[in-house]
Amino acid sequence: MNATSRDKRKVRTSVGIDPDDYRELEAMARKHRVSMSWMIREAVKQYLKNKRPLLSRDES
User: Does the global pTM surpass 0.90?
Assistant: First the structure.
């Protein structure tokens, strides 16, 4: 699958972020030469990976 195909499957969303958190994310993105969008997507993936087993147990 090429990059264009992957991009078409993404869903756009909007979230509010605390101004201090935004500035920190902005600085981290610049330092690592990545977009803030990429960093946020990766953070969400990690959160879901770490929380998914906990949520599954709670739902039983």
Answer: no
